[in-house]
Amino acid sequence: MWKYFTYRNTLKYIDILPNLVKGYNHSYHRSIKMCPVEVTKDNENQVWRTLYRPGINIKASFKYKVGDKVRISKTKLKFEKGYLPNWSEEIFTIVKRKAKPVPVYKLSDWGGEPIEEHQRVGDTHVPLLRVVRIGTRKAGEHTSIVKGNWIQYHPLTNITDTGPIQFTVQGSIDDYIDLSQTILHVRAKIVQGNGEDIENDANVGPANLMLQTLFSEVDVSLNDRLVTPSTNTYPYRAILETLLSYGPDAKESQLTGSLFYKDTPGKMDSCNPNAVADVVNHGLRARTQYTRNSNTVDLVGPIHCDLFFQEKILLGGVELKLKLHRSKNEFCLLSSQADADFKVRIVEASIFMRHVKVHPQVALGHAKALERGTAKYPIRRAERLVIGCVDSEAFNGSYNRNPFNFHHHDLNFIALYVDGEQLPWKPLRPNFGDGQYIMAYQTLFSGLNTMFSDKGNHINRNDYGHGYTLYAFDMTPDLANGGHFNLRKNGNVRLEMQFDRALVRTVNVIVYAEYDAIVEIDKTRVFPSDCLPSECFSFPCAFIANTDKADEPGSHWVAMYFDDNVADFFDSFGRTPEECSPYFEHFLKKHSNIIQWNQKRLQGFMSTVCGQYCLFYLLHRCRNLSMNTIISKFTEDPTFNDSLVNDFITKRYNLDLKVGDDEYIVLQIARQIADKYY
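and the corresponding structure tokens:
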């Protein structure tokens, strides 16, 4: 039915209802051992005995075996929070089974200690899909991760002074990746514009958080799908997350590995590291100690991207790509020299990814769960806003302007409106000239969920008015922007700002927004029609894609083949790329000048072998057969065609393949095609 709906672009079923009913009534039913149309008054007793024969003993069907590791499903009370999990965090072992109409299992904890009460183990839809470190009752033990190690990856190409740095982490089906433990390592030095070393007293030093300011944008792709927004504000994200997420202990210890040394409040635009003590920016001077005489400085730190700040482990079999775009030298270096001409030379760059092996039972649970759904990676991307103003010249890159000088610019009014409703309860009206800005300063805690707690950010009230003027707004209904997701909603956000006097310089308003989002990966690690690869690829190459979008269940497979600027689009229903999906048409035009497609319907409306059609076409196309030659192998009879492709794939790959199994088989055979021909 859905094949018909897809082809006709309609949900009207009345036209084919007689055929559907006829097909159902004339099909063999295992429950009654015959077709429904064969049931008559003469054999109705036989049918009844087949279904309900007396004396039959229904044996309990156990889903789990003794020794299996399971979680216990649990029900919520009426007013319990909906975002809490529906199953236990602890993993238990089945030690005994009891046959009842509803199977009963006796459990023990991970250490073998029995549980006093018998628990019924429910069939949760995703029993082990939550890929996190699972604590047990014994402190210090972990049950899902068996072992792990860091692997160093180097760039794909040589590092240049201006080009991006690219990394590729090939996905192994057995290896999971703990992205939250990723380490970026860079060795760099400051040289003159002509490449010569600088002197010990050179008037130049790095901007704060040097490791992150080296890059203006970081692109993250999963299986060639870009999952990060393309913006050139990566350094601002990094500095804001560093300023507001860490206290003095971290800033004075581990964050110095990224060359974070707090800029002196009120002296941020003092860009000469050799200035006298009363006017020098002590943060700049501290950083410069590592770069004098063109010394090579070692830098380590995290990657400030959404996917690397969530705790779930990346499934095996997913290829990860990173592209780090370089910042301007004028942005990441500070100097008061009038004719300053310096640059940063990256000597070496690498990333350390933590690969982990999970318990076989956990991996099996993931595989089973992926048959019913997708792996979901929650990320925070507008649940809260952080707003600051920077000089436009500094934002675009200037040796004598600090890009992280969040000056107040004599702002005297700021208000945020969400769907016309004001946040907070009334506008903030600071007076920086008189030092009256405590309510604006307080937003750094009320807006970041740290108010009245033993947490700080190493920004005191004096710092706030001298280069650290930021405004934070929490837009969650329960003022709890961490720990759980809130309901998704659409709306308009409006920001109003007023200043006490006219601005003498152009100002850029930086808005850092966090909101809830989810990255999903399916069992085949392939993408739907609206998520086709964004990266360039080499020719010849082939793709199999689904006509549904990412948020839809999937309905029909099509094939695409590229070679020498010519693209083939193959749909077993004979539709054009535009009729299947506008995304296909855009994708084909982007990567080719000539597009050809078949105009003949080959597949039956009721069959589910579209995947076999795609494989059949690509296997022959890879042997340099033309589209017309391949299409000529089919007849006007869709039933014959369906059997042809199904039998071909079954015999070629020695499969016990039934009609309808193509959803799993497509990827496996497609990979074999790629391995053999490319």
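(Above: one complete record from the training split.) The two ends are 37 Å apart (CA to CA).
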